[in-house]
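Example record

The entry below shows one chain as it appears in the dataset: sequence first, then structure tokens.
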Amino acid sequence: MSQEQSSSTLPEEAIVKPVRTVSKIWLVPIVALLIGLWMIYYQWNNQGQLITIQFKTATGLEAGKTKIKTRDVDIGLVRNIELSEDLSGVLVTVRMDKKVSPILHADNQFWIVSPRVSLSGISGLGTILSGPYINMAPGINQEMSDEFIALDAPPVTPAGTPGLHVTLNSESEFAYKKGDPVVYKGIKVGEFEDIHFNFEERIVYYNTFIEAPYHKLITSNTKFWDISGVQMELGASGVKVSTGSLETLLTNGVTFGIPEGMPLGEQIEERSFFDIHPNYESASEERFKYSAEYVILVKDTTRGLQVGAPVEYRGVVVGKVLSINSLENTQEDLLKHHHDIPVVINIQPGRIQQPDNPEGIAFIRKQTSLWIEQGLRATLKTGNLLTGALFVDLQHYSDAPSFVAQQRNGYDVIPTITGEFSEITSKVTAILDNINEIKLKDLSENANSMLSQISQAAQSLQSTATAVDNLLTSVQQDQISSTLAETLENISRLTQDYSAESDTYKELNHTMQALQAIIQELQPLLMQLNSKPNSLIFTNGNGTRLIPKAKQTNKNEATK
């Protein structure tokens, strides 16, 4: 029984199934790996280009934090900062976004944006809290690059800005810096971009940009001149003060235009070179290309005469002074006692409404030769008493001595006459000579004799005045006595008229008594009017007279 029971309770044969080789738990790391591979591929596929930018210093830059921006949009991130091999700068490796890879032109400009204060304004204040960043200005060069050299400061004009680039040069002492304005009629239309000094020519060149649409104003006849600060000029024509805009008062600046009388010229389409003139007058001189040159031999002093001083004909400017005592062989002659100082001048046909060409010069020479025969002479005159500046004046003098035409070092000579100061000096000298010729000894003796006679006459006059004074005093005293006696007599008569025994006194006393009686008669009427003012109009005058209570003592007195 037990065996059967035990045999019946035995289980059936077990079913053996094969065990799986990979567990489902492995799906988790596999999925994670696939996701990681996909992220790596996505990152690799979408990451931008690595570029290298060379800076002089890495002030404010941090790897992994400093961003690259253009138009305030993030386009990259600084990955690494290291020194260059020659220690001349800093190499900054930047990972750019993929979308900006097509615009990494070779002429792109990079610079660090940080707070900056200058005369032209304040910039970069937003970086006080966010920190410095690198800004990029896209270029226009078709060549691509991944290595760049950063700018020390923001560019004045980003590449691709519409306008015109011109080069200005100056031989004067004034200088400009990057960012100085170019002004036209008070409007800022451009800036100085770059400065280059040519050591061979000793000239400073300024690369300047004129913004659109003002670049259309630049033509072949355009002139540039300086308007820095306040310009004060003391010349033969007086004191001139000029200035530009408020910005040029603090910094330097130039302006441009076409001088009056010149045609507009052709518009400039590409970079051209222009000179910077000290002022408008100097720039305006450029419109006169031709001139006839002469020399005048000055016998007087040339102190106050400067190169560039005007040459005037009857008050009209016809030229200017070119040089003073600069002809050959004049230095040795200068030591001679009667040496005349040569002054080279010119007469410009364009200033006297003649064609500015060789035909105009021929007309000037012919006319000047004719006028010299008719008495045309040159002289130095004072143009400004304050500065003592001189100018050359051409005038006709009918009494001028004849002059034989001559030349000096190839220049035709215009004869001269004595100047104003020389004439004044000669007149003063003549006066002094006349004074010296006066016999001072005889003059002093005559003066002493005259003074003694004057003294005697004064004594006689004094004695006469004393006698007259005494006479007037006596007459005045007699007149006062008679007047005083008459006045006292009138006073005596008046007192007698008003004495107690006189008729006047009696009449006056009688008049006062009559006046007193009249006042007593009017007293009842006045008391009635005082108590009842309308009694004269509304009653027949028989009413009871009212007496103030203060005056009533008893009934008997009231009825009386």
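Notes for this example: The first helix runs from residue 2 to 8. Residues 289-418 form one domain.
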